Amino acid sequence: MQSVCPSRRMALKLLGSAALCSVIPGQAYASRSTKGSRFLDMVNLHTGDRFEGDFWHDGSYQQAALDGFNYVLRDHRQNIVAPMDLRVFDILFDLQQKLGKTGEIEIISGYRSPHTNAMLASKSGGVAKKSYHMKGMAVDLRMPGVKLADLRDAAKSLKAGGVGFYPGSDFIHVDCGPVRYW
Predict the structure, then answer these.
(1) If we measure between CA atoms, which residue out of 170, 35, 38, 176 comes closest to residue 102?
(2) Radius of gyration, CA atoms only, the chain
(3) Burial level of 152, CB count in 10 A (0-12/13-18/19+)?
(4) Of the candidates 84, 62, 63, which has an alpha carbon nearest to the alpha carbon of residue 73?
(5) What is the superkingdom listed in this entry's lineage (predicted)?
(6) How many CB atoms lie within 10 A of CB 76?
(7) Using one digit for the tens of pLDDT, what is the confidence trace for 45-73?
(8) Integer Cα distance of 68 and 119 in angstroms
């Protein structure tokens, strides 16, 4: 795993993320006890921050990788890093597996602070006031080389949570809440 933007500042932010994530043990156990690794590669389109790595290996989530992904998925408007629900990473990985696609996932939005969510909701009717983004349970994304409708259909077929389709804004929303579609 590596970060493309290594710097003292990022290291301090990642350490802060680790402190926030201390509620998750260094090796949180996965619900499935299978062998192997699960790899993700993400870029935040608003900040340019990137991180790639194995977030799960032989039945255990890998805290160092989770910290890196949590940083990429942070609320960039408030610069707040929060722990994402582990199921979000599983959904992203399963989505790539379903599509037979590896490579970078483009992130439009991950965690949102209540302040940021309220600001966005005041400007758009498409932002839920009680958004799963505020719970670290949702990601807005797209994948280069994958048609948006195919990405939506693959996400729906997982039946892992909510799936929103936003073709006008060129992204889909996935979350690990109840199964529903819009």
Answers:
(1) 38
(2) 15
(3) buried
(4) 84
(5) Bacteria
(6) 19
(7) 999 999 999 999 999 999 999 999 999 99
(8) 26
